[in-house]
Amino acid sequence: MKAARTTVALFGPHGRGAFNEAGLTGALRARELGHEVEIRWIGPRTPEARTESLRDLCRRGVDLLLAHGGQGDAPVRALHAEFPDTSFVITQGHFTAPNVACYEVLQEQSAFLAGVLAGLHSRTGVVGHLSGEMLRPGLKGRAAFAQGLRMCGQPVHFLTQFCGEQHDPALAYAATLSMQREGADLVFAMLDGGRAGVNQACRERPIRQIGSVLDWVAREPDIFVASAMADSGRCVTEAIDDFATGRLRPGTRRLFGLEDSSCVRLVLAPALRVIHGRQIGQWQDRLLEGSLAIETGFDDDQSASMDLVSAA
Hints:
Blueprint: E1 6-11, H1 18-32, E2 37-42, H2 47-59, E3 64-68, H3 73-79, E4 87-91, E5 100-105, H4 107-121, E6 126-131, H5 136-151, E7 156-162, H6 169-181, E8 186-190, H7 195-204, E9 208-213, H8 216-219, E10 224-230, H9 233-244, E11 253-256, E12 264-268, H10 270-289, E13 303-308
Parallel strand pairs: 1-2, 1-3, 3-4, 4-5, 5-11, 6-7, 6-8, 8-9, 9-10
Antiparallel strand pairs: 7-13, 10-12
Helix pairs in contact: 1-9, 2-3, 4-5, 4-10, 6-7
């Protein structure tokens, strides 16, 4: 039986960023399972240019095209009808069709817990959020983080910015400094290649970071107090394996959440586990048992500053 022609498209500069690192790891894991997987880096940064890059891949012939990240929503929406014999998967996306499925790790769950932690741990009472492009996964994560801040039991002033680019360290550095000048001592950074700019600011100024996607506490414990893990690489591996074994269901979404701690969890620095671990565990239990619903709707302001009233 001929092996499926599978291509994984990673958006951004080659080899840069934790989200793309997770996707790459997932693709390599699929190879280890015996699947033939081509990995392509898509450099263009506009939806139109990304669409053309994916169109070129489809024209060369591919059975499964997996677009890693919300950046894949618009291109796949534009292309799926043009290539009806190709199956598409979007990770962290939301568009589905008769030949398109979505696989998603619920970043908003760990982002909510990160918001609770940030509100409890901030000494200044000012907390920042920073992301790049205004895509649905980032908006959902921001909404959940803000909800966690609001429910933590402490009054918090919330600063939020989308700097416009996931992979630009200079933009991220400037945005982090602006938040610190407004009093923020913690920032939740949902970035990819631009994270280096946040890291630089954290080393220069009295501001610390909550990471996303991977376990940044283990990697850089001097500047990360926590990390809202959401390992999207799991989506890549599972989607490729499901397609190869006939389990892929186009038109549907497959979700991975806190019930699988290898995918989604909030990692705390050791000192914070002692101080806040019990409270975070209680909030996590509420999410798992379904007694607390996470809010994923948030106005689409590029940047905002607001006081959040405690709703604990």
